[in-house]
Amino acid sequence: MTLSRTRLELLHRIAEKKEKDAQSLLADAQKKLTEKQNMHRELQTYLGEYERQSPTATSAMLLENQRQFLMRLHNAGTSQLQAVANAKQKLELVRLEWLQKRKDLQIAETMLEQGRQEALRVSERQSQRDMDEFATMRQRPTAQYS
Predict the structure, then answer these.
(1) Packing angle of the helix pair 5-52, 60-145 (nearest 10 deg)
(2) What's the pLDDT tens digit per position in 24-55?
(3) Distance of alpha carbon 87 from alpha carbon 145, whole angstroms
(4) CATH code linked to domain 5-145
């Protein structure tokens, strides 16, 4: 059973939309990963600058505050590194989904083209039959009079 051209075109449009949506999700995931990487890099830069500064606190309490702040910066860096890893994982999942949708679109395009080719073959066969019938009809009257 072959699918009608209308159905093939509908399947193609659906596959095209799904691929486009998946591509959009892929772009969003890439953007989020880039943002997480930039934030991690900025945190690391700030942490490095803060660690290079010599302690300026004059009291034990201020030294403890600086130490705690430094620890919080380290923790934020670790959390941000995990966020980068999660974003990479999400990007890979979205990329795989997009690849599948792209493959589905290519299959739909192939099916649509095969449907077009089949319709063309059917039309050509019908035209040939019509021409053969016309030629046969044209020859009959001549054959009857001889």
Answers:
(1) 160
(2) 999 999 999 999 999 999 999 999 888 888 66
(3) 87
(4) 1.10.287.1700
